[in-house]
């Protein structure tokens, strides 16, 4: 029997997973508690029955690989998974690729009174007692923004109707229907998820960054900056400009082209005060044989191909909270190489503060 999984994520305590389970006759409810994961102990409930697991290695990937994935395959039918607050649904869906499981929907629960402060703050998950394991250096902002961004549907809890929060969510997760817990009709919510919703799918970083046609005009002080340029960043000036993405900004995602590393496409992602830079792999302009790359990637590269630069470009999407959009655009534009630097790019030795990260960055 095929397994359909409904993932329910969220940082604040909630009973939404239970509500979905009760509204789904024959479904199974699974919940994990990872608070003692660093000691190799995981608590798991299946329809209320507790099992204490002792893992040789206390890590999230071990929990998923050794327990959740085989459990889901074994259960079959509809399974509602109440994710531990420390888990991000995108990482879970990535792991689910290994098994014969279909993601029916990702539902994220948002505390309307605290989410916006969490999404723009700098507090570490570990400082709140929510780190997934020893060495977990994620911020609360990175987790709550990731949970909301990857959602197919959003459920709000708590009091208040903040128009700023609504404007942010319209741009962060534009396809996801939003309902309040107090008036939640589970069947109606799941039926309202559009056919082109993500449902656990993710791209390789080279796809469209403006998912779901978010509104681009400002509202309640919230703006979207879509920065696209066909020249590389100067690595030192970009590094100096990064602070503009870490204050008053909810989310930054995008591809980066450095003059010091013309063959590599970098992925830059921020949420609140947290920043990640990763390696997406090579630009196709730096590769002779395209046959090993997905057809969609080849088609996109061909559609935007430049005779001089190939598929290389800057593309960043920034969702602002209080930061002025024009200041972000100006800072990023000032970080690009000048005409003179571009003409001499092959001869110049750029000071590159990202260099020490290059050897550590695994391809995403």
What this model shows, in words?
Strand 7 (153-157), helix 6 (163-172) and strand 8 form a beta-alpha-beta unit. The protein is globular and about 65 Å long. It starts with a strand and ends in a 6-residue tail after the last helix. The chain is an alpha/beta fold and 364 residues long. Mean pLDDT is 92; it is low at 359-364. 27% of the residues lie in helices and 26% in strands. Strands 4-3-2-5-1-6-7-8 form an 8-stranded mixed β-sheet, with helices on both faces. The protein is built from 12 helices and 13 strands. It has helices at 16-22, 60-75, 89-96, 115-119, 140-149, 163-172, 186-192, 235-241, 295-303, 325-334, 339-343, 355-358; strands at 3-9, 28-33, 41-46, 49-54, 77-82, 101-111, 153-157, 178-180, 223-229, 249-258, 261-271, 274-282, 314-320.
Summarize it.
By secondary structure, the protein is an alpha/beta fold. Helix content is 27%, strand content 26%.
Labels describing this entry:
364 residues; alpha/beta; 8-stranded mixed sheet; disordered C terminus
């Amino acid at each position: 029997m095929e397994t359909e999984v409904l993932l329910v994520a969220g940082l604040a305590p909630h009973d939404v997973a239970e509500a979905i389970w009760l509204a789904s006759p024959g479904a199974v409810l699974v919940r994990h508690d990872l608070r003692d994961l660093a000691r190799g102990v995981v608590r798991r409930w299946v329809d209320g029955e507790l099992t204490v697991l002792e893992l040789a290695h206390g890590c999230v990937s071990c929990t998923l690989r050794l327990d959740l994935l085989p459990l889901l395959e074994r259960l079959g039918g509809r399974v509602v998974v109440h994710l531990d607050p420390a888990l991000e649904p995108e990482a879970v869906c990535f792991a689910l690729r290994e098994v014969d499981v279909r993601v029916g929907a990702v539902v994220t629960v948002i505390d309307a009174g605290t989410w916006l402060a969490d999404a723009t703050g700098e507090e570490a998950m570990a400082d709140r007692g929510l780190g997934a394991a020893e060495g977990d250096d994620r911020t609360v902002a990175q987790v709550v923004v990731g949970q909301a961004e990857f959602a197919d549907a959003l459920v709000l809890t708590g009091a208040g109707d903040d128009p700023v929060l609504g404007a942010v969510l319209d741009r962060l997760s534009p396809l996801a229907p939003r309902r309040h817990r107090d008036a939640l009709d589970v069947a109606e919510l799941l039926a309202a998820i559009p056919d082109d919703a993500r449902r656990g799918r993710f791209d390789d970083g080279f796809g469209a960054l403006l998912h779901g046609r978010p509104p681009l005009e400002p509202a309640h002080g919230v703006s979207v900056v879509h920065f696209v340029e066909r020249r590389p960043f100067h690595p030192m000036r970009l590094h100096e400009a990064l602070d503009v993405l870490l204050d008053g900004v909810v989310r930054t995602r995008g591809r980066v082209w450095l003059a010091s590393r013309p063959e590599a496409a970098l992925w830059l992602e921020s949420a609140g005060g947290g920043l990640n830079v990763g390696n997406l792999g090579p630009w196709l302009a730096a590769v002779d044989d395209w046959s090993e790359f997905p057809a969609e990637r080849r088609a996109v590269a061909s559609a935007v191909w430049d005779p001089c630069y190939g598929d290389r470009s800057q593309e960043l999407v920034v969702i602002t909270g209080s930061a002025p959009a024009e200041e972000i655009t100006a800072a990023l534009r000032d970080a690009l190489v000048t005409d003179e630097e571009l003409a001499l790019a092959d001869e110049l030795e750029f000071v590159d503060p990202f260099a020490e990260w290059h050897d550590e960055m695994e391809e995403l």
